[in-house]
Amino acid sequence: MKQLFIILSVLGILNACTNSQETNKPNIVLIIADDLGWADVGYNGAEFYETPNIDKFAADGMIFNRFYPGAANCAPSRATLLTGTYGPRHNVYIPQGLARGGDVSKMRFKVPTQDQDSTFNTFHVSINTVAPEFESLAEMLKKSGYTSARLGKWHIGDDNQGFDFVSANGEPGFTTNFNGVEKRFYDDVHVAEKMTDTALKFIEENQDNPFFLYLSHWEVHTPTKAREERIEYYNKKNEKNNFKQNPVYAAEIEQVDLSVGRVLGKLEELGLDKNTVVIFTSDNGGVSKQTSNLPLRAGKGTYYEGGIRVPFCIKYPGITKSGSQSDVPINGVDFMPTFAEITSTELPQNQPVDGASFMPILKNETFDYERPIFFHFPLYIGSGGTDKVLPAFDGTPNYWRGVPSTTMLSGDWKLIYYYEYENFELYNLKNDISEKYDLSKKEPEMAASLLKKMKNWVDAVDAPIPNVLNN
Q: Topology of domain 26-92+128-366, per CATH?
């Protein structure tokens, strides 16, 4: 009897330890703005836009100066973030899935294109859909007992990918991604506030167990719309300081900043701030018609820095140090392995995970600075006003935002190979953040080395390369 009592006592202690470990797993809050440029936050130099909550959060945590989401557009970058895989694996390359925004006759190759016949379907693309077979961040974390919520923009298909609570606009159960139709809330001046209200309620209701909150704002994507009194505030700021900035865009940024402040405040109020990893970032670069991405080149839809480098700050209590920064490049594929390490969760077994955990960077430990990061874009995208920076194959200047290409980052170096023109550009981002100086001719050995690594990656992931001429 005495032995039985001892055994039961030991089992009770073990169970208590197990439950304690589950309870002490860090919560994760991931807040993403839509189309917010790298230069649109105060800590990166913005003077007209006001982001006091984001700036304080960045100062209290760690800033990554070179964070690159998975693509230069929203749908593919979200697919990459969700699955930990590069574009050629999930096949989401562009919003609406097909080449668009230009005269088809100016495309050198046939690729899947809006309003074209089946002869243009020369390889497979996904129409804003991540296949249910992929294990998502939410499904991965569920294995470790996490409850998850996604609020706001989804943009990657009908399947909810394992999130326990979903809402497109903050109203419980209001999900619009069914039957291929997704209602948008870009011009809803109340949506950020409603989503944040629901986020705070989710945090309160799940404070006793580990949770994952994915708060995906509709701001600052066009069409922009904001409260009249805040537009007037920024109009007056323009007049007083001789700025010539977009007051509506500024008011939308303010909405995102207020949301960040409210979420951080709720975590602190409930005593969860000491056990919650919080990340703030954006899905792709800013749109040049709305904002300036300077000193970065170009903007959304392009694979220059203005299209793919975005704000990123993180606070991991007990791990990150206040005021710390990193210049190590990281990518959207890195979320999954990082979250797996943070939560001691097994990575998916039914899909490759292309990223690497950036926990060593947070801990100020060694990380491979030269690790290659890739972007593959096999389509064409036009429109975008001043973001049209690439010529058509017939020589028409500034016609496309994106043409079939593969982009590779490795440490300070960046290589863009254009299948459209059968040439490439090489930049040293440490010395030339604005990508003014193409070094492809001056650095032939570096170019050759990167080209070889790029080709090996393209082959390894079976990336589609257009090869059917459009004539």
A: Alkaline Phosphatase, subunit A (3.40.720)
